[in-house]
Amino acid sequence: MVLIVGLTGGIGSGKSLVGEYFADLGAKVLDADEISRRVIERGSEGFDRVVATFGDAILRDGDIDRRALAERIFGNSAERAKLEGIIHPLVREAFESTAASLSGDDVLVYEIPLLAETGAATRFDFIITVETDLPVRTQRLKKRGLLAADIEARVRAQATPEERMSVAGYVLTNNGTPDELLREVEYVWEKILPGLQRAQN
Ligand code: ADP
Predict the structure, then answer these.
(1) Which alpha helices (DSSP H) does the chain contain, by range?
(2) Rounded to an integer, what distance in angstroms lies between the CA atom of residue 125 and that of residue 95?
(3) In this model, does residue 39 exceed pLDDT 90?
(4) For residues 152 and 60, what is the distance between their CA atoms, to the nearest angstrom?
(5) Which CATH number fits domain 3-200: 3.90.1150.10, 3.40.50.300, 3.40.50.11460, 3.40.630.30?
(6) pLDDT tens across 175-185, in order?
(7) Which residues line ligand 1 (CB under 6 A)?
(8) Which ligand 1 atom sits nearest the alpha carbon of residue 9?
(9) For atom 10 of ligand 1, which residue has the closest CA?
């Protein structure tokens, strides 16, 4: 049977890298952040609905300015709920249509940063969290150009490692080299996921 795996972890923990490794091993990988950007791209139904709801002020050069949109909903739960009411069902639809297109023993890995926070855990057959010590994450993200204050703000808004680990069936740790991480991912792919698939059949 198709196995649906949720992949979470705090900002900079290495989710995208783990996703790439799973894709190389043969999984179908979807990124919730990427989908939520795609469903409001110019020309989409989501774009029209966001503009109809929030007005032209959130546009820049004809595209939705995600920063302006974020500022508009910041600290305003009614506005946030309106935006989520547009985006979440579209993201869910994209996820479900991909899941429905799979067959046999396919594995779908869904990268979702806020898995523990949103109660989405029930949608997955298995959950993996990528955990990396905060100083290591901070250093890697700074190298990528993020500012310390922005990293701290994001970390504060996310679930704690304990909260993520309490919903996860497996913890990948990523304090070492990319090669060490790859070996851990290969272990999960070869030794953990096939057993789960057999148990489902
Ligand atoms: P996330 O998707 O969880 O935010 P990323 O996969 O984008 O995290 O990783 C954050 C940054 O750290 C990226 O620049 C990535 O290339 C780098 N990175 C991830 N794992 C390692 C590692 N084991 N060693 C060195 N750099 C890493």
Answers:
(1) 15-25, 32-38, 45-54, 66-73, 77-100, 115-118, 134-143, 148-157, 161-167, 178-187, 193-200
(2) 14
(3) yes
(4) 28
(5) 3.40.50.300
(6) 999 999 999 99
(7) 9, 11-17, 140, 144, 174, 177-178, 181
(8) 3
(9) 12
